[in-house]
Request: fold
Amino acid sequence: MKYLLSKKFTIPLASYFAVVATIIISRSILSHEHTLLLSAGVMLWVPFLLDRNTADVLRLNVRGLILGTGISFTVLFCYLACLYLLSSLMGQTVKFTEPTVLFVITHLVTIAFPEEFFFRGYLQRKFGGRLKAVVATSVLFALAHFLAICVFSGGGACTHNILTFFPSLVMGYLYMRTGTIWSSVFFHFAANIVYLSFRIS
Reply:
């Protein structure tokens, strides 16, 4: 915690709490669709407002993206293998629900990209980009999901939102390892689609 309390982290942490507060307030007064759009807009706008080097984050590194895609497929394959193994041990089956095109586009444009841009491209970069930064950003990522979705929105899906810490570690590692935000965007997007499409029933 001492790591995050140093003076150089004051602005990134203040921006984090401002973004989370905006999302929480918008969830109580706007529809789900409008909240998604506002949240995405705020997470994209704040880094540009506070850091003139933010545009550099959007540069495409093809080699890093290929590496990140390979790591993403490996992690998600392991997740699905564990899911199928667990379902067979429980005597249940894994049900696949095919996502709609709108669902896929929404998750990419209003969730995966803005969240990665803000959490990895801004916060993790400002925290120093090393392993400590990956862990600190993942704690804040899980806390934001817990507060916005569980605590201030009727208490649904609490465990799921706390557990976002673990995929966030993967996303942070991908950004740190590959040097491109697009690898973590790809994993975030693919992980959301896989998680929401495959369920034990």
